Amino acid sequence: MNINEQITATQVRLVGDNIPEQGVYPISQALKMAEEMELDLVEISGKADPPVCRILDYQKFLYQRKKKAKEMKANAAKVVIKEIRFGPNTDEHDFQFKLKHAQEFLQEGSKVKATIFFRGRSIMFKDQGEKQLLRFAVELEEFGRAENMPVLEGKRMTMMIAPAKKK
Known about the structure:
This protein is of the alpha+beta class. 35% of the residues lie in helices and 28% in strands.
């Protein structure tokens, strides 16, 4: 972003509230107007023909832009991931218990990472583990949606479930 003498164009288009008449001005006249108001001539869009400029207090402009960026960062949603782990041979009661916890996590807006851990020879039951994860996703369908299909990484199979959008 160029300011004052850094602007190289011969003519500029002035826009803004503090200008008597918006339009195309020679650079010397635009600089003179900014100097009379004790403000800066700031190039807003250098790619336009002629470049678009605005007369404003540059330091105040930078401060407000920095403040706005800080607010946006503070308001950004922080994603919380809760993990639920079980084995390929988890019985029905434990499955329902973990399902209830996952529902609570999704309702409070957290993502759920469902993990099936294979120990020893239980890796032979990876198709059973995949079925269990898919059933888990189907049971949680009204609370969230699966972001991906079950993925086997070493001795664990994982699946991410994101909370459903609130209406």
